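<context>
A single protein, sequence plus fold
<entry> Chain with its tokenised backbone below
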Amino acid sequence: MENSTAKPVAKTNGAAVIESRGLSKYYGPFIATEDVTFSVSQGEIVAFLGPNGAGKSTTMKMLTGFLAPSKGESRIAGHLMQEQEERILASQKIGYLPENGPLYNEMTPASFLKYMGSARNLSGSKLQERLDYVCEQCSLNTVWNKAISKLSRGYRQRVGMAHALLHDPEVLILDEPTSGLDPNQVHEVRTLIRNLGKSKTLLLSTHILSEVEAVCDRVLLISSGRLVFDGSVSEMAGTENNLEDRFRELTGNCKV
């Protein structure tokens, strides 16, 4: 696992910019999530950790207003995400990387991101500045003008990350940001996340313990749709300093 000493120390002002209040989602008798409640303060990098199928993506979608909860509510930068007008206002402040986010396969990263930037009212030199920034930060130079349909999963994930960063949002919500990446790409994305954490608030879902140790200040652990731990990485590791053992203990011996 990567050495967690490389992480920046979070500088927060205590103001909650991401809030989940009792978020629950039911599909008939099946409980996808139940009473998920937490807040993330400005400047934190928080891991939303859990085994596959624990409810991470469902919670992310409810947080960002893409999925209506059965009960509960979420707020981002003070905006109630279950209200359409509020969600529109919040959209300028949020960068969201969903699991398997939609991309236009017939477009290139350059044309796709230019189109999405224009849709966010970016134009002229400002748009070009942001395009240059995300191209460099997400290492898209070699595929910038290649059809998205021909890109590997790892490069498609990078295009999704670039889209989330394009409008320079205050808050980033990233669902499995290193999914499909090779080890070198994983290192690059983790470095990017650490750098972004110096000026932004980040919530990232993952089931990878080394990712938590490498980049996060705090852990929210979900298991079977319920939040079972909220604390620092060192608090979760416990006196034995073993995240994997604690993960298994808290999630009922689910596989990492």
Notes: The longest helix spans residues 124-137. The CA atoms of residues 237 and 243 lie 4 Å apart. The two ends are 13 Å apart (CA to CA). Residues 1-12 have pLDDT under 50 and may be disordered.
